[in-house]
Design goal:
alpha+beta; six-stranded antiparallel sheet; 19 helices
């Protein structure tokens, strides 16, 4: 509806304002002739006009023809909420209390009992006033309801385009006297009738809104008096109860329904409701002719209707729900009945609501148990009364504390003592505030306790055996090693004292003594490995040098059998991170084993490395092993019968010890063998450092930052064989070097980190690597005055103290780079911070 004529808008010419029920908007570019109050249909584009949202008109159609006008909505005089009718064509009535005439429009205020209305009447023909009404006239007006300014009162105005909309009525004063006379006659005539029916009319008038509300409700509702006789039922209730409206009145609820609870009657329910409050019951239809009895949930409450107390009953058909609940209940009861533990539910009064089959004994039926207490149950089962009292005390603790309570009890079942572990678990209501019930679990732990006793007894026996074994091994170590040492020593002395014919016998004594010593050492080593008493000290060392020393010590034994023993390697330095003593034992065992089972040819030890680690292979031309026995070659004591390799002396535990030592150092060992052709034992151990740089092929790259060229040169020389080392003398060169290339580790002299800018530069250097975290090592002077470690400053991950040796530095760097991947996966907050003193 047009509320502001074109040409008179404060926003400029060719504008108007249109308003409907949903709101209004400013019209721009109005070219058609429209007037205030016109009904139009507009389409266009939303724009901004002088800071306000406007509609740039594309089409405008005037629909104000009488045939197109909507029917006026009548607004009662007592209606206060007029805003809901804004944008509609409405009709109102009232008395004119104010009028103002202008050249272009007239303003009229119509007073109403609810709220006055401001009427806006435009003058289509200037100088003429077709308004045929005066102040005091009672008029009926049709027009379009529109809003006014937010601060204006009244807040709405009626736009009237047609002056004939003002229809003066007959002056009230002209018929007042006649009205009084007629009303007096009517009152006198109807006085007797009204007097006799006044109570009924008052009651009907008071109950009509209530009945209207009940009729409109979707639920089935019945109104009854205090004696449960029905006085009214809505349509939903008559359909649910299968009764006609006339037939249901004056019937008692007790004749229509049967309560499901045993001993419950509507009389008792009515007595409870007279004291106030509400009541919920479950009932069935009482008509026996109906096969499918409905289950109803009935909620009753006391209310006042027409000044009298009444009972309102709301019905809900829960037949399907009850069937689902029953199925759900049966499912869970079957589930609980199948459990091997006792499960029961106790009420807040300590009475049983349910117990599964595992908790019932022959003398107790489930139907008898419901509603009984633990004391009554114990009496029924012939158990001592103190058991029931103790259970009741624990149940009360669970209810009051709201926490589970566990305890053990001993009961006698068929003359046998049984140990039971019981738990009282409180269950809270749906709100989680109060305890609603208690679930009790009972588990027979008799066998478990017996098993524990047997286990404790077995542990005691094992401890005794372990002590005997340790004592036995100590005695062996002392009683055997001393005489064996004497045998070997005196055999060496006798070798120079006896004749040539006797020297061979002396050599046999010496060889037998050494074999006994080797067997003793192997047995002691095996015992230590089984008891996890073998301590390892991982260090970085050169495998080639260590292997050369071991081979030199075994060459004489090989030459005695006419065998060759030599070392082959791809390069002179191959480093590993392992226990040096443990590696020597592994290689020595493999070489001794090959010499023992080789009669012709010889043994070759090969050492090389790849990306997986360092590889040591011992190849021999010995007797070999049958294919079916290869999987058992590393088993302990599997050489006793000579089934693996033939009839050779020994107890067969050397290879088993070797395998365990390899696995202790995170390595692997395998064997390849062919009967009568020889064997190859292959050992793989971890590398001392990565084979290639984290950032590409080649040696791992390390950047050393120290203002002392001597320190830079020394570190570069010490690490040059295995690492690519770049040098920088200050933080400026560090910045340039990190921009040019990427490093796997940075070593920075801590004396350069004296200012905050230095720390900032170090952080920026690390950030250039993105998500790849690299370790940063601080090089510091050793604190000789105290033994306290140097504090690890922010930004550093490790500390290296000067002075240091080549072996220490090599081990230090290798260990850090060995764990580089695990280190790089950690977040900055989880970065490990270690103090490593290598000097």
């Amino acid at each position: 509806r047009i509320t502001l004529p074109p040409g008179s808008s404060p926003f400029g010419n060719n504008t108007a304002y249109v308003q409907d029920r949903t709101g209004g908007i400013l019209l721009h570019n109005v070219k058609q002739s429209v007037a205030e109050g016109d009904s139009v249909r507009v389409s266009g584009t939303i724009i901004l006009k002088n800071g306000r949202t406007a509609l740039s008109i594309a089409t405008l159609t005037n629909t104000d023809a009488p045939a197109l006008l909507p029917t006026a909505t009548w607004i009662p005089e007592d209606e206060l909420d007029l805003v809901q009718f804004v944008g509609e064509r409405v009709e109102i009535s009232g008395i004119i209390v104010h009028m103002e005439r202008f050249d272009e429009r007239s303003t009229v205020i119509i007073n109403r009992p609810g709220i006055p209305i401001h009427v806006h009447v435009p003058h289509l023909d200037q100088g003429q006033d077709y308004l045929k009404a005066n102040v005091g006239d009672f008029v009926r007006v049709k027009g379009v309801l529109a809003t006014r300014r937010a601060s204006a009162f009244p807040p709405v105005q009626l736009l009237v385009k047609d002056f004939t909309a003002f229809t003066p009525s007959i002056p009230i004063e002209s018929f007042v006297n006649w009205g009084i006379l007629v009303m007096s006659l009517l009152l006198l005539t109807a006085f007797y009738v009204l007097l006799t029916k006044v109570r009924r009319r008052i009651h009907v008038r008071k109950t009509t809104p209530f009945k209207s509300m009940v009729d409109q409700a979707g639920s089935a509702i019945v109104v009854a008096d205090e004696n449960m006789k029905i006085t009214y039922a809505n349509r939903a209730a008559t359909g649910l109860l299968r009764q006609s409206p006339a037939n249901i009145r004056s019937k008692s609820l007790e004749k229509l329904l049967t309560l499901s609870a045993e001993g419950e009657t509507f009389g008792k329910v009515a007595s409870q409701l007279r004291r106030g409050g509400s009541k919920s019951v479950t009932a069935f239809l009482a008509d026996d002719r109906i096969a499918d009895h409905k289950m109803l949930d009935v909620n009753l409450a006391t209310v006042k209707v027409g000044g009298k107390k009444a009972i309102v009953a709301v019905f809900n058909d829960v037949t399907n729900h009850a069937e689902d609940v029953e199925k759900y209940k049966l499912f869970h009861e079957e589930l609980l009945d199948g459990m091997p533990v006792e499960v029961a539910i106790l009420s807040l009064q300590g009475k049983y609501l349910y117990m599964n089959s595992a908790g019932l004994v022959d003398s107790v039926a489930k139907s008898w148990l419901i509603g009984k207490t633990d004391v009554e149950l114990c009496k029924k089962c012939g158990l001592p009364a103190d058991i029931g009292l103790r259970r009741r005390a624990h149940w009360r603790r669970a209810v009051t504390s709201g926490k589970p309570v566990k305890f053990e009890e001993v009961i006698s079942v068929n003359g046998m003592e049984r140990h039971m572990l019981r738990t009282f678990q409180p269950i809270r209501d749906s709100d989680g505030d109060e305890v609603a019930a208690v679930v009790t679990f009972g588990m027979d732990i008799t066998e478990l306790k017996q098993s524990r006793e047997l286990l404790d007894r077995a542990r005691g026996e094992v401890n005794e055996v372990t002590q005997l074994k340790e004592s036995f091994l100590e005695n062996i170590n002392h009683e055997f090693r001393t005489p064996i040492t004497g045998i070997i020593g005196f055999a060496e002395i006798l070798e120079d004292e006896v004749s040539d014919e006797q020297r061979e016998f002396v050599n046999m004594i010496e060889r037998s003594g050494r074999r006994l010593m080797n067997t003793l050492n192997a047995v002691l080593d095996l015992a230590g490995l089984n008891n996890n008493e073998f301590d390892l000290t991982p260090t970085v060392f050169n495998l080639v040098d260590e292997a050369r020393l071991i081979i030199q010590g075994s060459t004489e034994m090989a030459e005695e059998k006419g065998l060759f023993l030599k070392l082959e390697t791809v390069r002179p330095e191959i480093a590993t991170l392992a226990d040096q003593v443990c590696f020597a034992r592994i290689l020595q065992n493999l070489i001794d084993n090959s010499i023992k089972f080789t009669e012709a040819g010889g043994i070759i030890v090969e050492i090389d490395s790849d990306e997986r680690g360092v590889n040591i292979r011992v190849l021999d031309t010995g007797v070999g092993i049958d294919r079916e026995y290869v999987p058992m070659v590393f088993d302990d004591f599997n050489r006793a019968s000579g089934t693996l390799t033939g009839s050779f002396d020994g107890v067969g535990i050397g290879l088993g010890i070797t395998k365990r030592l390899v696995e202790l150092m995170n390595g692997t060992i395998t064997v390849e063998s062919t009967k009568e052709e020889g064997s190859i034992f292959s050992v793989t151990l971890p590398r001392a450092f990565p084979a290639t740089s984290k950032h590409g092929p080649g040696k791992p790259r390390i950047l050393v930052v120290d203002d002392s060229s001597d320190v830079n040169t020394m570190i570069q020389y010490m690490l040059a064989d295995f690492f690519k080392v770049d040098r920088a003398v200050n933080l400026r060169e560090l910045e340039l070097m990190t921009k040019r290339g990427r490093y796997d580790m940075m070593m920075v002299d801590m004396s350069l980190m004296k200012h905050d800018l230095a720390h900032k530069g170090l952080v920026e250097a690390r950030e250039r690597y993105g998500d790849v975290k690299i370790p940063i090592v601080g090089i510091a002077e050793s604190n000789r005055r105290t033994d306290e470690p140097i504090e690890l400053p922010e930004g550093f991950d490790f500390i290296l103290e000067k002075p240091f040796k080549k072996s220490d530095l090599f081990t230090f760097v290798s260990i850090i780079l060995f764990h580089r991947d695990a280190f790089s996966d950690k977040d900055e907050s989880d970065r490990p911070r270690h103090y490593l003193k290598t000097g």
